């Protein structure tokens, strides 16, 4: 999607966290579907891949989304520090870490 939308290839989007589309969720979903077709939906390998897909999607949606919100708050706190504070020159944290429900 990003390749066609931005008219360029960005490998960081494939390997990085956050953003749209979720390459991690897409990869584990494709793996689960492929195993389901190959071994059948009653196989233990499909069950394992399905659990893995659920864990990855939960991480992408829940944990990283909240970590991104915390990064936003911490960046605001550091921004409001006086210039003489030892942490005033701290590099901002990356905020878009997770996915929203539509993503």
Describe the overall structure.
- The chain has 103 residues and is mainly α.
- It has one domain.
- The protein is built from four helices and no strands.
- Helix 3 runs antiparallel to helix 4.
- The protein starts with a helix and ends in a 24-residue tail after the last helix.
Summed up:
With 103 residues, this protein is mainly alpha-helical. It has helices at 2-6, 11-15, 23-39, 44-79. The chain is built from 4 helices and no strands.
Termini separation comes to 12 Å
Spatial extent as radius of gyration: 19 Å
- How many runs of DSSP E, i.e. beta strands? 0
Helix content: 55-70%
Sheet with the most strands, sense and barrel status: none
Structural class, judged by helices and strands? mainly alpha
What's the helix count? 4
Mean of residue pLDDT?
81
Low-pLDDT regions = none
- Overall geometry comes to elongated
Write down the domain tally: 1
Secondary structure blueprint with pairings:
Layout: H1 2-6, H2 11-15, H3 23-39, H4 44-79
Helix pairs in contact: 3-4
Core attributes:
DUF212, single chain, transmembrane, 103 residues, 4 helices, 0% strand, transmembrane helix, membrane, mainly alpha
């Amino acid at each position: 999607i990003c390749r066609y939308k931005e008219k360029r290839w960005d490998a960081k989007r494939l390997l990085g966290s956050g953003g749209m589309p979720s390459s991690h969720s897409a990869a584990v979903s494709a793996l689960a579907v492929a195993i389901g077709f190959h071994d059948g939906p009653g196989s233990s390998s499909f069950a394992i891949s399905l659990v893995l897909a659920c864990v990855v999607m939960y991480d992408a949606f829940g944990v990283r989304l909240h970590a991104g919100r915390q990064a936003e708050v911490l960046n605001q706190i550091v921004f409001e520090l006086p210039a003489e504070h030892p942490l005033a020159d701290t590099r901002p944290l990356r905020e878009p870490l997770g996915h929203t429900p539509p993503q």
